[in-house]
């Protein structure tokens, strides 16, 4: 799944760069949306995020591209890799600014872990 956002004034820290907490929130939301779309009817909650290391600062007006894809699947949990790029709209180039893996667990209505649906074999 791919998604985009623009860094606006309300996303900046006191130094004038993107606040790391905003980026982490967007990553969590985008990965959760990807997992939910890939697994309809499943209720997921975040249980962990891999390494958090910001590669460079991001300025006001920057367009960010997020890419999220499943990277690992267990019995009750799954992990999505998320990469974030800053787009340079003048040159068309992208600069990687962040990447991580985020893990979700499937829960029932009472908050108990339940197995993920099994993948349907493709009919090719």
From TrEMBL:
<dbReference type="GO" id="GO:0005737">
    <property type="term" value="C:cytoplasm"/>
</dbReference>
<dbReference type="InterPro" id="IPR029069">
    <property type="entry name" value="HotDog_dom_sf"/>
</dbReference>
<dbReference type="InterPro" id="IPR006683">
    <property type="entry name" value="Thioestr_dom"/>
</dbReference>
<keyword id="KW-0378">Hydrolase</keyword>
<dbReference type="GO" id="GO:0052816">
    <property type="term" value="F:long-chain fatty acyl-CoA hydrolase activity"/>
</dbReference>
<dbReference type="Pfam" id="PF03061">
    <property type="entry name" value="4HBT"/>
</dbReference>
<dbReference type="InterPro" id="IPR033120">
    <property type="entry name" value="HOTDOG_ACOT"/>
</dbReference>
<dbReference type="GO" id="GO:0006637">
    <property type="term" value="P:acyl-CoA metabolic process"/>
</dbReference>
<comment type="similarity">
    <text>Belongs to the acyl coenzyme A hydrolase family.</text>
</comment>
<protein>
    <submittedName>
        <fullName>Acyl-CoA thioesterase</fullName>
    </submittedName>
</protein>
<dbReference type="InterPro" id="IPR040170">
    <property type="entry name" value="Cytosol_ACT"/>
</dbReference>
<feature type="domain" description="HotDog ACOT-type">
    <location>
        <begin position="1"/>
        <end position="110"/>
    </location>
</feature>
């Amino acid at each position: 799944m791919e998604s985009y956002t623009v860094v606006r004034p309300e996303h900046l820290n006191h130094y004038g760069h993107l606040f790391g907490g905003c980026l982490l929130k967007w990553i969590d939301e985008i990965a959760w949306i990807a997992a939910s779309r890939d697994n309809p009817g499943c209720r997921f909650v975040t249980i962990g995020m891999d390494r958090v290391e910001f590669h460079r600062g991001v300025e006001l007006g920057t367009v960010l591209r997020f890419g999220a894809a499943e990277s690992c699947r267990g019995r009750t949990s799954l992990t999505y890799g998320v990469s974030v790029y800053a787009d340079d709209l003048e040159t068309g180039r992208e600069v990687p600014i962040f990447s991580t893996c985020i893990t979700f667990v499937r829960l029932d209505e009472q908050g108990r872990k339940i197995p993920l649906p099994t993948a349907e074999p493709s009919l090719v």
